[in-house]
Write a structure and sequence with these properties.
Layout (H helix, E strand, L loop, with lengths): L2 E10 L3 H13 L4 E4 L16 H12 L6 E4 L13 H18 L7 E4 L13 H11 L2 E2 L13 H4 L1 H17 L7 E2 L5 H4 L2 H14 L3 E7 L6 H6 L4 H11 L2 H9 L3 E3 L3
Parallel strand pairs: 1-2, 1-7, 1-8, 2-3, 3-4, 4-5, 6-7
Helix pairs in contact: 1-2, 2-3, 4-6
């Protein structure tokens, strides 16, 4: 078995400058996938409005990489009501429908997968929506960004190391397999913001180590690339440096050479 990698840019649709950069990366870098936010991620629990930036992002992607099917980066309003969202399936469906319409308007492929913005579907904090997410993916033929193994995403995380989370995760993996929902072998990123990234050299070394540790099978590394702009500094006060460094990483020949040296196949889906 070979090692293959989906290299994803998350949070498309939230910044026009970032959307243009992501599209350019899809056309000329190791980046292979994009995940689009279709609703306002800052809206309260009353029900977030559609994000007009989603259509813009899909248009840019379709022009640069017409074969790339976007992922749906599902957003649930925060804070959640006590007990969670009883209508979470409807909320997921509305976001999938919004991205499907945007893709059709841009003559792009329909969404191919469901992703979890800030982990809201996983239930690491609050109620888990894994059962609803897996059932939705099975009914609509979507893949789901839930790792089969937690060894990379859960490095040093006491929550993910807990017996309760591990048991819930194992049950969800079994449910996905039973329903025929495709999931990646592992997922990985650099969790946290500027403080955790420290500097560009440290961030690059983190991602180089992730490449070396990828197991056999199809996995995913996701990043949040964005240019250094006044808007990014304003809306991502503790994240903008990391986002700019991740944008730089995707154009860094050292990173590209490491993918080649490790014999990793770049793919757009698992």
């Amino acid at each position: 078995m070979t090692r293959s990698l989906v290299l994803t840019a998350d949070d498309a649709g939230t910044d026009p400058d970032a959307d243009r950069e992501i599209a350019a990366l899809l056309a000329g870098s190791p980046l292979t996938a994009v995940s689009v936010i279709t609703v306002d991620p800052g809206a309260g629990p009353g029900g977030p409005p559609e994000n007009p930036g989603a259509a813009r992002a899909v248009r840019h992607v379709a022009e640069a990489a017409p074969d790339v099917a976007p992922g749906v980066h599902v957003v649930l309003p925060t804070p959640a009501p006590e007990g969670g969202f009883d209508d979470v399936t409807d909320r997921i469906g509305a976001q999938v429908d919004a991205l499907t319409r945007a893709a059709a308007a841009a003559d792009a492929p329909s969404p191919a997968r469901l992703d979890s913005h800030q982990g809201t579907l996983y239930g690491l904090v609050g109620r888990s929506y894994l059962a609803e997410s897996i059932a939705f993916c099975a009914a609509h033929g979507l893949a789901f960004r839930m790792p089969r193994g937690l060894e990379l995403y859960g490095d040093g995380d006491p929550v993910l190391a807990s017996a309760g989370v591990r048991a819930r995760h194992a049950s969800a993996v079994a449910a996905a397999d039973a329903a025929g929902v495709r999931i990646p072998r592992v997922i990985a990123t650099l969790r946290g913001g500027d403080a955790e990234a420290r500097d560009y050299a440290t961030l690059r070394e983190h991602y180089l180590r992730l490449l070396r540790r990828l197991p056999e099978g199809a996995s995913e590394i996701f990043l949040h690339p964005a240019p250094d702009t006044p808007r990014q500094r304003d809306v991502s006060a503790t994240w903008w440096r990391k986002r700019a460094w991740e944008l730089r990483l995707l154009g860094d020949p050292v990173f590209t050479r490491e993918i080649e040296r490790e014999g990793i196949d770049l793919v757009s889906g698992w």
